[in-house]
Amino acid sequence: MLELFAGSGTTLFAYENLRKDYIGFDITQKIIDYVNSIMSEWSSINYAIKNVDVTDRQPFSEAIAA
């Protein structure tokens, strides 16, 4: 699942309960750090959450590969 506004990770947690993969983006590094700190405690999760700078024209494929 791709979520462009990941926020506090509520959808991430829901997808983990469904055993689904998840890619989330958000513009707030503080939120990304928070979600990563919580999710790092769950060893079985296959997820990615990235910071997106909306002023940068970096291609989507580069953002998810980083």
From TrEMBL:
InterPro entries: DNA_methylase_N4/N6 (IPR002941), SAM-dependent_MTases_sf (IPR029063). Residues 4-35 form the DNA methylase N-4/N-6 domain. It holds the Pfam family N6_N4_Mtase. GO terms for molecular function: DNA binding; N-methyltransferase activity. GO terms for biological process: methylation. Keywords: Methyltransferase, Transferase. This is DNA methylase N-4/N-6 domain-containing protein. It comes from Alistipes putredinis. The lineage of its organism: Bacteria, Pseudomonadati, Bacteroidota, Bacteroidia, Bacteroidales.
